[in-house]
């Protein structure tokens, strides 16, 4: 995650930002982010990247890239406004010991914002049509042993896959069907039988209901309708709602504000650091 110390809506690259330039409160954003951070820190280890001047959208770390098994496909942003973030994220991943793959500038790819693994890891769902270009999907094919399935986004409000599609850890799918073209919807519905699909209403989709951080049985997301929260609880999930309206002004919510990392790698790094500590010094 990246604290919103330098967060602001400074330009318009999605419909949510329209009319919201400089309209967010950094103080409120900080409070909301802290609540999200604390909720996640209870169930996961949260690592941080320092915010950098000139990159107000850096808080949306889901767009840093897509990481799994120590490999990261770094994002190549569609808009020049966000391209400055690439070097910052790259440095972070290199320092953390990831094998870094860079995606060409000509074929934008916006990381976990547009690419999500199925619960069993066998399928990598990748969006295109708004930000990520379908040509970038080929790079992903070589990186992990997963079938890459391309799905086309058609509604500018749901410009990243993680705003309208969320494979949940139990094998269910939370999604907003109207955000996809018919062929893509066919692919999605062929992979998820009807009892596995949780269809989100337009209202909940606009509350970023699909933009969920899903860890085990816990779902952390923006405030959604009572009906949807009840349905998710009925399926055995613990639902934690955190108000994130300051970030919706930039077009993002819970999932956009986080990126899933390769836990093994960081556990190893911690162990290495521990092994290298001078124990006599610690004892003193
Ligand atoms: N203002 C950012 C953008 O338009 C928001 C990114 C939201 N991130 C996400 N993963 N959906 O790029």
| Oligomeric state of the chains present here | single chain
Task: Calculate Rg over CA atoms.
Answer: 18 Å
The top-level CATH class is Alpha Beta
Roughly what is the average pLDDT, rounded to an integer?
94
Largest sheet: 3 strands, mixed
Write the layout of secondary structure elements.
Elements lengths: L25 H16 L23 E4 L2 E4 L5 H4 L1 H12 L2 E4 L12 E3 L5 E6 L8 H5 L5 E6 L12 E3 L5 E3 L6 H10 L5 E3 L2 H5 L6 E3 L2 E4 L4 H9 L3 E4 L3 H4 L14 H14 L2 H5 L1
Parallel strand pairs: 2-3, 5-6, 8-9, 11-12
Antiparallel strand pairs: 1-2, 4-5, 7-8, 10-11
The structure holds arginine.
For the structure shown, list the relevant keywords.
284 residues; binds arginine; 17% strand; single chain; L-arginine/glycine Amidinotransferase, Chain A; three-stranded mixed β-sheet; alpha/beta
Summarize the structure.
Helix content is 30%, strand content 17%.
Task: Write up this protein.
The protein has helices spanning 26-41, 80-83, 85-96, 137-141, 182-191, 202-206, 226-234, 245-248, 263-276, 279-283; strands at residues 65-68, 71-74, 99-102, 115-117, 123-128, 147-152, 165-167, 173-175, 197-199, 213-215, 218-221, 238-241. It is an alpha/beta fold. The protein has one domain (4-261): L-arginine/glycine Amidinotransferase, Chain A. The chain has a three-stranded mixed β-sheet, with helices on one face. Strands 4-5-6 form a three-stranded mixed β-sheet. It has a three-stranded mixed β-sheet with strand order 7-8-9, with no helix packed on it.
């Amino acid at each position: 995650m990246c604290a919103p110390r330098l967060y602001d809506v400074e330009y318009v690259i999605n419909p949510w930002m329209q009319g919201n330039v400089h309209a967010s409160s950094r103080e409120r954003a900080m409070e909301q982010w802290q609540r999200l951070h604390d909720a996640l820190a209870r169930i996961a280890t949260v690592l941080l990247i320092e915010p950098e001047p000139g990159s107000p959208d850096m808080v949306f770390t889901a767009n840093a890239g897509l990481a799994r098994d120590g490999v990261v496909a770094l994002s190549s942003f569609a808009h020049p406004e966000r391209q400055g973030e690439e070097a910052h994220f790259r440095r972070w991943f290199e320092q953390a010991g990831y094998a870094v793959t860079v995606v060409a500038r000509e074929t934008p790819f916006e990381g976990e914002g547009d690419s999500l693994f199925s619960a069993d890891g066998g399928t990598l769902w990748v969006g295109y049509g708004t930000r990520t270009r379908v040509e970038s999907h080929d790079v992903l094919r070589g990186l992990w042993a997963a079938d890459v399935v391309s799905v086309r986004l058609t509604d500018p409000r749901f410009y990243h896959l993680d705003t309208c599609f969320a494979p949940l850890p139990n094998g269910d799918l939370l999604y907003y069907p109207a955000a996809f073209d018919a062929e893509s919807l066919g692919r999605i519905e062929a992979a998820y039988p009807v009892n596995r699909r949780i269809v989100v209403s337009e209202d909940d989709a606009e509350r970023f209901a699909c933009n969920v951080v899903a860890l085990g049985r816990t779902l952390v997301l923006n405030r959604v309708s009572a009906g949807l929260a009840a349905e998710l609880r009925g399926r055995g999930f613990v639902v934690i709602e955190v108000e994130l309206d300051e970030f919706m002004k930039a077009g993002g919510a819970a999932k956009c504000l986080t990126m899933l990392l390769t836990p093994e790698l960081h556990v190893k790094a911690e162990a290495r650091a521990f092994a290298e500590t001078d124990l006599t010094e610690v004892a003193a």
